[in-house]
Design goal:
Length: about 140
């Protein structure tokens, strides 16, 4: 009984190891195909696939430009408001307790952030304007 169990365990551990070695079986299959007269369709690799996205239509570019122009108008107004707030807080007398006013850094960050957004949107408008000119 014990010898049967040892044989069964040995068979179960060796058989998967032999079956997982696909390198020799693949070579055997290729050799069998060649012996049977099978040849590869082609020895050259297929040509590369060159997928180019279609550029957006003129109408899409114009719609995006209009949306960006409306956005730049809103951001310009937001920058004006943030700058007014910053100027107001900068004009306030210093706190007698010596504590720094948290409003000044907050509005400085708001002005800088809004200015950055304006620059980004303006760059997008410039790019869209060039694309529209090229599409016409």
């Amino acid at each position: 009984m014990r010898s049967r169990l040892v044989c069964l365990v040995a068979l179960l551990t060796i058989a998967p190891a032999m079956a997982s070695d696909n390198s020799s079986s693949s070579l055997e299959v290729i050799a069998l195909l060649e012996n049977a007269g099978s040849v590869p369709i082609s020895d050259t690799p297929p040509p590369p696939i060159n997928i180019r996205p279609r550029p957006p239509s003129l109408q899409v570019l114009q719609a995006q430009l209009a949306a960006d122009q409306a956005l730049i108008l809103n951001e310009t107004q937001a920058l004006y408001q943030a700058q007014l707030q910053l100027d107001f807080w900068l004009a306030q007398p210093p706190d007698p307790s010596g504590l720094s006013d948290p409003n000044v850094p907050q509005w400085q960050r708001a002005v800088a952030s809004t200015q950055n957004t304006l620059n980004t949107v303006q760059a997008q408008i410039n790019r869209l304007t060039a694309q529209i000119a090229a599409a016409r």
